[in-house]
Amino acid sequence: MTATEERVFVKPPSEVAKQRRGEIEDASRLPVKVKIRSLNFYYGGQQALFNNSIDIPAFRVTAIIGPSGCGKSTHIRVYNRIFEIYRSHRAEGIVEIDGKNVLSPVTDLLKLRKKVGMIFQRPTPFPMSIYDNIAYGIKLHYRASRGEIADRVEDALKRGALWGEVKDKLSEPATALSGGQQQRLCIARAIAVEPELILMDEPCSAIDPVATSKIEDLIETLRDSYTVVLVPHNMQQAARVSDFTAFFYKGHIVEFGPTKKIFTNPDNKQTEDYITGRFG
Amino acid sequence: MKESTAAIANVATCAPRDQSRPDAVFKWLAAACALVVIVIMAGIFFELVRNSGMAFREFGFSFLTSDSWNPIAGEFGAASSIYGTLVSTGIAMIIAIPLSIIIAVYLVEVAHPKVSGLIGGAVELLAAVPSIIYGMWGLFVFAALMQTHVQPFLSRHLGALPLFQGPPMGIGVLTAGLILAFMVLPFITAITRDVLMMVPPVLKESAYGVGSTMWETVRFVSLKYGRRGIVGAVFLGFGRALGETMAVTFVIGNSHRISASLFSAGNTIASSLANEFNEASEPIYLSSLFALALVLFGITLVFQTIAHYWVARMQRLEAGDR
Amino acid sequence: MRPRSRAQRRAADTAIRVAMVPSALIGIAVLAWILWEVIARGVGAFTPAFFTELPTPPGMEGGGLGNAILGTLLMTLLAALLGTPVGLLAGVFLAEFGPSSRIATAVRFTTNLLMGTPSIIIGIFVYSILVLPFGHFSGWAGAVALAILILPVVMRTTEDMLNLVPDELRESGLALGAPRWRVTLGIIFRAARTGLVTGVLLAVARVSGETAPLLFTALNSFYWPGSLNQPTANMTVTIFNYAMSPYSDWQEKAWGASLLITASVLVVTVLARFVIKDKGGRA
Question: Tell me, what's the ipTM?
Answer without folding.
Answer: 0.92
